[in-house]
Amino acid sequence: MSTHLYTALNLAARGVPVLPLRAGKLPVPNCPACRDNACGGRPNMKTPGPCICPRPCHGWAAATANPAVIGSPDWATVWRQAQAVAFCPGGAGVTVVDLDHADAVAWASATLPTTRTVATTRGEHWIYRGAMPSSNGVRDGVDIKSAMSYARWLGPGTGTMTPLPDTVRALVGRKPAAAVRPVAVTAPVGGGECRHRTPAYLERGIAMAEQRITGARTAIHTTVYRTFLAVLSTHGRCGCLTQTHIDRLFAAAQTKGESARHCADAWVNATNVLGR
User: Last residue of a domain, which of 173, 188, 222?
Assistant: First the structure.
């Protein structure tokens, strides 16, 4: 049994939904049957649990505390290749305040109630008892990971876990969605020079964009916008970019905690900047 599988089963025994991570702290990519959401995904993608398919290939939504799923043959190969274990904080009834650098840790120490603390590579995770909506970039170097999100398991930490304070909830509450009509997001109309001599060129570009988004550790909002801008600049002139491609980019952004509203706004803003 691999070390990561052993850790995952121990966490699951305590009711913590877990999932394997590959290199770069990324979730397992979609299998061919689930590519472009062909499988339909989890119903509503609202709660953690096993994928519709038996593989752990739906990001945070694949997280499960079921040992039969975690130790199944469909997960076995993934565990052998896994680089880390992640968990869905909201599914475990907790919230992780991810502090990405020393200034963020200093801010938390001066502002937030003390709670269980876990050291990370560059900062700290502060873990509170209670779940809430997730949101990235609530402050410089501060992400909130709880419902519909995942965090890397780095050990039990030190200190006593305390109830989720209103101070943390307010960090997300400061960023309400604008009360505007829904934006219809569509692929650009063609008419420009086509650079896609083969389908592989466009596919490689979209795959690289997905990886850039899911690999971002800070400044998630900015990364999503700049990636959309780069995709449109390179691939949006000739009409080869389809709604399926857009859906893949939005799905990647939402695994990092971005809302559908923000994705739509970022796409429209990028489109407007390029004059599409």
Answer: 173
